[in-house]
Each structure stands twice: as structure tokens, then as C-alpha cells.
Amino acid sequence: MNLLRLTLIDPAGGVSFVAHGEALPALLKACAANPSSIEELLERVDPYYHGLRERIENGIAMFDERNAHGNNEAIHVALEKARPEESPLFRIVDDETREASLRPVKAGALIINLIDRRIVQLQNGYQEITRTGRGRVFDGERLTNSVFTYRLPNAWALVP
Predict the structure, then answer these.
(1) Rounded to a whole number, what is the largest CA-CA distance in the chain?
(2) pTM for the full predicted model
(3) What number of other Cβ atoms are within 10 A of residue 141's Cβ?
(4) Is the pLDDT of residue 68 over 90?
(5) What are the pLDDT digits (tens) for 131-147?
């Protein structure tokens, strides 16, 4: 499978999750609008990869419910027991979750840093990220024949 570990970072912190590589072009399209928050990024992703926003928002709510008041034992246990590609979505709250956010799954791991406008490809076996590209719209059930394009502004750094 083309699963990627994706970590999104904004001024409020970071969120890490596993998604199909097909979501990557939609995330790049959303980055082209220079969003300042994860919420804004997900709002811009939704028309191109429907359902990702809801999945991440639900995952954040579940994380917050299970790991309230700085008690992070639930996420530590989940990360220890789950295979990397099956790990739950989590906020980066300590050294253990930070390390997990850097751990690649089947097709790799990427960080999208909205603060510094930087996309870091820790490992990318899915597809080369370029400043311009295209993707297919995901309607929530399947990839459609509708195609969109994106162009990342020069302000965005692609590492490596």
C-alpha cells in the first residue's frame, strides 16, 4: 500500500497521522494557498480529497479525550502496540510522540511545516514532490477522473 506518515505543524503544535499517498497532491494544492493553520490547510484540502478533514478533526477529538490534562499514557500504549501503518492520529505532545511522528510507514514520512513553509521528505517512496503537479480528486469513496493542478510558491522550501 501507498501509506505515508504525514505530520502537520502550525503555531499551535503538530499532528501526525497515516494516510494514502493519493492525499499528497491535495495537501500540496492546499499548501499553495499559504495556510497559517492546520484547520485552514484541511479546509483547503477538502474539495480535492474529501473526508480527510473530517477524519483528522475526529482523530484530534479522540486524542484529546483519551489524553486529557497531560496524561499521555493512552497514546504511548497505542503507539507501542500498533504497527506503524496502523497507529492512531496523535498530537505531538512530548519526546515519544515527536519520535513517532518521524517514523516512516510503508511509502515514507513527510512533514508539512506551515510556520516555516517547508515540506520535509524524511523518506518518500510514493512520488517525487515538485513545485508544480497534479492530482485526481477523491470524492470520499474513490479517485475520480477529475484532475486538479497545483503550483507551490517559491516561499515554500522542499527538503530534500
Answers:
(1) 45
(2) 0.95
(3) 8
(4) no
(5) 999 999 999 999 999 99
Identity of the amino acid at 115 = I
Q: Which of 48, 57, 47, 56 is nearest to 22 (CA)?
A: 48
Q: pLDDT tens digits for 10-53? A: 999 999 999 999 999 999 999 999 999 999 999 999 999 999 99
Q: How open is the CA angle 93-126-61, to the nearest 5 degrees? A: 30
Cα 91 to Cα 74: distance, rounded to the nearest angstrom? 12
Give the Cα separation of 86 and 68 in Å (integer). Answer: 22
Q: What are phi and psi of 63, to 5 degrees?
A: -60, -50
**In one letter, which amino acid is 24?**
L
pLDDT of residue 1: 72
The whole-number pLDDT of residue 151 equals: 98
The Cα-based distances of 66 to 27, 28, 92, 94, 97 in angstroms read 27, 31, 14, 15, 15
